TrEMBL record:
This is UDP-glucose 6-dehydrogenase. It holds the Pfam family UDPG_MGDP_dh. The lineage of its organism: Bacteria, Bacillati, Bacillota, Bacilli, Bacillales. Pathway: Nucleotide-sugar biosynthesis; UDP-alpha-D-glucuronate biosynthesis; UDP-alpha-D-glucuronate from UDP-alpha-D-glucose: step 1/1. Belongs to the UDP-glucose/GDP-mannose dehydrogenase family. Residues 311-413 form the UDP-glucose/GDP-mannose dehydrogenase C-terminal domain.
């Protein structure tokens, strides 16, 4: 099948690469010529395990092309997948400006009877709106399908090739069947729905997962207050199949390019329709507080943060990505900066993106050792494997005070107790102090 994909972000690129891998002819279009130039050289503009290999392989095989020309990309495509960004507007609603421009780009070049697929996350009703825009710009017949995406950054290729489900929303049976056919080689369960249900499934899924995280974070805070252990509690809850083990990891709140914006967008949609979705307001409020947790704990332990050296380990919103969008590290760095602490951060891959947001409010180390040297405290912000494997005895030896605030519960109790001197503050578990009087 000949497929055009608009947008080479996480979603467009992963989709394009995976569809080419299963034998389709894919041309990816982006308005960013630097991205397209890099992609043509086989360089991925994002850090995503496994992506570059498939990119090089399928480009060499001639299944995968890149262009900045909408005409070149769209004019021969049977299926046109729109995967442009839908960021957050100031009022919480989804900003559809990229999508609307993409719709115009599509209408200018589509060939008759092609299928336009919206993969971007869009509020209920947007597919219908886009359909009316394309109809206003072209007389050529076309069909629309809503096909939201559920991949996670850091495992985008695996999530696409082995998805739990594919949602195909359309009022047109023939178009739905053609998209089902396009995905058949992936051998993934497919659910056909109407367009509005497909749009809602995406937001409901993200909002539910975000709420699950806020719930477990509140339970963790309560565990700390009553002396319970969140790891055991989450384990015990997760064994119940109705609850499930996934997304019960307590920490310092969710971040990323989607949960924060999608929860707010759903709340906005609810408001527009007179539904008071107060649960989502709480999900957001709990998350905002949770992102301050390490700072609050450090204030209460160290009293005065002015001129204290804090080593921040991790900047990206989660491991295996260099994405800094809505990362908890941003709020933490701002709070520490306001408190006049000296922050030295290390992240295996997110340094360049972090610099664009945090500038010189913090310093950037090029290794863990450099960050922790003479630090008054370490904040573990992202659970990179590199940090989980740290030798805590070595780490604490190089610090001014052996105090660790672990926002991601990276270490087992026996590893911490093996240190000769440490003060270790996890999330939702009792603090551990070894070899010190506090
Ligand atoms: N990042 C993720 O993990 C996931 C994102 N989504 C949703 O997918 C959509 C895309 O997200 P990302 O891939 O993260 O976006 P992104 O913002 O990283 O990339 C979007 C790309 O689209 C390009 N673009 C904008 N207008 C264009 C046009 N008219 N023609 C061609 N290219 C154009 C931009 O230059 C950019 O490279 C969003 O709606 C997002 O909510 C859904 C599931 C997962
Ligand atoms: O719509 C999207 O963009 C995507 O959003 C999330 O994917 P992603 O943002 O890549 O990352 P997640 O692995 O879901 O993590 C999101 C945030 O939640 C946090 N999290 C996750 C799981 C958990 O148990 N605890 C927890 O605090 C992570 O640290 C991270 O900050 C969803 O998991 C994807 O299904 C969805 O497609």
């Amino acid at each position: 099948m000949k497929i055009a994909v608009l947008g080479t972000g996480y979603v467009g690129l992963s989709t394009g690469v995976c569809l080419s891998e299963v034998g389709h002819h894919v041309i990816c279009i982006d308005i960013d010529d630097q991205k397209i130039n890099r992609l043509r050289q086989g360089i991925s503009p994002i850090y995503e395990p496994g992506l570059e290999d498939l990119l090089t392989k399928n480009t060499a095989a001639g299944n995968l092309q890149f262009t900045t020309s909408h005409q070149e990309g769209i004019e021969n495509a049977e299926v046109i997948i729109i995967a442009v960004g839908t960021p957050q507007r100031n009022d919480g609603a989804a900003d559809l400006s990229y999508l609307l421009q993409a719709a115009k780009d599509v209408s200018a070049h589509l060939k008759p009877d092609s299928i336009v697929v919206i993969k971007s996350t869009v509020p209920v009703g947007t597919n219908d709106y886009v359909k009316s825009i394309i109809t206003n710009h072209t007389k050529k017949p076309f069909k629309m399908v809503s096909n939201p995406e559920f991949l996670r950054q850091g495992s985008a290729i695996k999530d696409t090739m082995k998805a739990d489900r594919i949602i195909i929303g359309s009022e047109d049976k023939e178009a739905a069947l053609k998209i089902q056919e396009m995905y058949r080689p992936l051998n993934v369960p497919i659910l056909m729905t109407n367009v509005r249900s497909a749009e809602m499934i995406k937001y409901a899924s993200n909002a539910f997962l975000a709420t699950k995280i806020s719930f477990i974070n509140e339970i963790a805070n309560l565990c700390e207050a009553v002396g319970a252990n969140i790891i055991d509690v989450a384990n015990g809850m997760g064994k119940d199949k109705r609850i499930g083990e996934a997304f019960l990891q307590a920490g310092i709140g969710y971040g990323g390019s989607c949960f924060p914006k999608d929860v707010k967008a759903l709340l906005h949609t609810a408001g527009l329709h007179g539904v008071d979705f107060s649960l989502l307001r709480e999900t957001i409020a709990i998350n905002d507080e949770q992102q301050k947790l390490l700072f609050t704990k450090a204030c209460s332990r160290l009293k005065q943060l002015k001129d204290k050296k804090i080593a921040m380990l991790g900047l990206s919103f989660k491991p295996e990505t260099d994405d800094m969008r809505e990362a908890p590290s941003i709020k933490i760095a701002h709070l520490l900066h306001e408190a006049e602490a000296k922050v030295v951060a290390y992240d295996p891959v997110a340094k360049d993106n972090a610099k664009k947001i945090l500038g010189d409010t913090i310093e950037y180390a090029s290794s863990v050792d450099q960050a922790i040297e003479n630090a008054d405290a370490v904040f573990i912000v992202t659970e990179w494997n590199e940090f989980k494997q740290l030798d805590l005895t070595e780490v604490t030896k190089h610090m001014k005070q052996p105090i660790i605030f672990d926002g991601r519960n990276c270490f087992e109790e026996n590893k911490i107790r093996a240190c000769s001197k440490i003060e270790y503050y996890p999330v939702g578990k009792p603090a551990i102090v070894v070899g010190l009087d506090t």
